[in-house]
Amino acid sequence: MSTKYIFVTGGVTSSLGKGIICASLGRLLVAQGLKVTIQKLDPYINVDPGTMNPYEHGEVYVTDDGAETDLDLGHYERFLDIKTSQSNNVTTGRIYFDVITKERQGAYLGKTVQVIPHITDEIQSHVLKLGQSGDYDVVIVEIGGTVGDIESLPYIEAVRQLRYNVGRANTLSIHLTLVPYLAAAGELKTKPTQHSVKTLSESGLQPDILVCRSEHPLDGTIRRKVAQFCNVDLEDVIASLDANSIYEVPLLMQKEGLDKRVIEKLGLETKPTNLENWIGFVEAVCKPSVAIKVALVGKYVEHHDSYKSIVEAFIHSGAVNDCKVEIEWVQSDDLTKENVAGKLEGVSGILVAPGFGGRGIDGKVAAVEYARINNIPFFGICLGMQCAVIEFSRNVCGWENANSTEFEEECEYPIIDIMPDQKDIENMGGTMRLGQYDCKLAKNSNAIEAYKEEMITERHRHRYEVNNNLRYKLTENGMKLVGLNPERDLVEIIEIEDHPWFVGVQFHPEYSSTVSNPQPLFVDFVKASLKYAKDNSLYKSLKNKSKKAVRN
Ligand code: GLN
After folding, report:
1. Residues with C-beta less than 6 Å from any ligand 1 atom
2. Could you tell me if 487 and 536 are in contact, meaning their C-beta atoms sit under 8 angstroms apart?
3. Has 411 been annotated as catalytic?
4. In the prediction, which pLDDT does 545 show?
């Protein structure tokens, strides 16, 4: 069976959840025995989102191979339980970068280099590269942005050509659109969808299937109207109603027959659907027995997408613990030693988040101290771990002037320092310690208890590290360096003695949490927080409440 390509475009407005639809369709196909991957094409000019501010772009998702990518790749991995790589995320910036590099090398043999055919060819070659690997039955290609955007045009044209080149029977075009409800008229309106499909068709791309986002069910009349005016079969009009949890979407899409239509149209050979585990997980997410509060201390907390993978990892690990983790978003800029007790009142666990730069550091250090002294489960991730080391150096080791050279270049005790190989790097893009590295765990640690194996790998994204010249001071005072990178002897995990659960990790465990494989440290952190909540009567029982689905 040759690889099939499914192109997913979006119309009318952004934020319709194209990534979730792609991931949900992918999940349904995987559940029927198919090998699937998903690629995201992003029409912006940054080479990757690594240099973008979290307010602009949300979380930067890091793959095993160290690519800094769009957060939708996180959804793909979490839903499909697959690994993605640099090949799964292509931006306009990268396409132009590659074309211009080739032009400088003389690869175009004196030709005028143009959007068509050179840019569109380059886009096609990036898409085909995944298909030609021979690893997949289906490649789903999500095209970022909205149809009608100027910057989307080369992508739509590339898709048009690609469909022509690999044969229409091997490709499918799905368009995700909005059917808004006008309260004043008391009606659902199909005109925006009609216009969007018309714009797409003008570029030579006729959708085979329409997925219509809507706040209200689409009745027969609306479906017929959409089908007739958009030139698709009635059963190819798929309604996508708002869901309580993104993890319900695969089940809703199955009910609407999205996978069935895709399989029929592409002539895919499938096995009977096996969604048992998924259904069990959704039930656990929607009907937890208890709810606990866990603080997420960070400086981008107004923008929850900045911590997307952490939020999702809490949903996975909450389900394992039959517990809903309610995140208390705590702005680190506002935290002080004086107000920390008030601001963190009622939480059963404290997570200090990753980040860059000095803003909010004092607040994070105050949160660590509060967790340490009061025996509240603590989880520090990357910068959060570095703050835990700074706090311990200052308040336990007596090095009052300990700091990271990221915030204070000439500090007296640079307990966190730039890694030697990062010192002379000038370019910002793609130059951190990125991707997966090994970490060896010490016996008798919370970490090994969680992972249940000695050698683990996790993904990284940082320039600074625990200073190996000064780390003796930490161990002398009871900090345990329980995870080390064997090649470079870098500190990857710290814990402290005489605390129920205090773990800081230099890597990003949140990236590797999936529905099928919830991340072990998150699972154990939630377990410890749940215990703390029970011991301190801080949990809410949801047992006899109406079994309403949980919002995430
Ligand atoms: N700013 C810190 C560093 O570069 C931490 C990075 C992070 O939290 N991802 O090392």
Report:
1. 354-356, 382-383, 406, 461-464
2. no
3. no
4. 55
